[in-house]
Amino acid sequence: MLKTKMKQLLTALTISTAMVSAPLATQAADKGASNVEAGKELAFSRSKGNCLACHMVPGGNLPGNIGPALIAMKLRYPDKQKLYDKIWGKPETQIPDSMMPPFGQNGILSDDEIAKIVDFMYTL
């Protein structure tokens, strides 16, 4: 029951966040906007980030529910470097028995690609 209520809450929050966060990419500087778009493309790409396999992401189709919804990322990670380190796979950021691969450590994504994904996630 609690899981169902939590999923409903996260879905509602994701939908409302998607409507609010959409203009943020257009307000960014040209370079920032291009990084955000490139980060979104990488995050949604099945051959690269593939974030949608496990996470609900505003604007994504057919999201997974293994990991937490990727919403309010600035609030969850006020220090952008900590989010970068989490995606890269720094040992101190890893959660035991997590299904999330260490993308940088395993060479799945380059440092630049992770930085672009972080830029995108900061718009969520």
Automatic annotation (TrEMBL):
An MF annotation (GO) of this entry: metal ion binding
Q: The Cytochrome c domain covers which part of the protein?
A: 34-124
Where would one find the signal peptide in this protein?
Answer: 1-28
The identity of this protein, by name, is SoxX1
What Pfam families does the record point to?
A: Cytochrom_C (PF00034)
Keyword field: Heme, Iron, Metal-binding, Signal
Q: Which Gene3D superfamilies match?
A: Cytochrome c-like domain (1.10.760.10)
Q: Its domain of life?
A: Bacteria
